[in-house]
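Incident log, structure service

09:12 report received: a user says their structure output differs between two submissions of the same chain.
09:20 pulled the input from the user's history:
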Amino acid sequence: MEVYTDIFIEKVLNTFKKELTNVEQLRGKMIYTIDPNTDEDKDKWSMYKCLIVEVSLNDKMYCLNSGKWYQIDNDFVTKINEEYNNIEISKKDFIDFDSSKDNYHEDEYNDDLEVF
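09:34 re-ran on a clean worker, output below:
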């Protein structure tokens, strides 16, 4: 078995004994992850679930992600921008994050912010 650091469609296509003619062949082709410390299989999934595809059909956009098809709302970005622009800006003063403190993390900053 050959080992790669990523999934390369060209390499996968070269592993088919017969010409790729239908989606069921992709569903049946398994991709394995291997634990680098033990060389044991960790997980597996079909090549079909590895594909990310965008297709335009009849003036609509569709996306294949993790083996599921989705219709993309053409107005999605516009809706998100409108909602974002309608959010009231906070009037709260924020304290500076003190990066000079050792092991100072976001949860501690949030605690300090509440006291402020």
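09:41 both user submissions now match this output. Likely a transient worker issue. Closing.
09:42 reviewer note: The radius of gyration is 24 Å. The helical segments are 9-13, 23-28, 76-85, 106-115.
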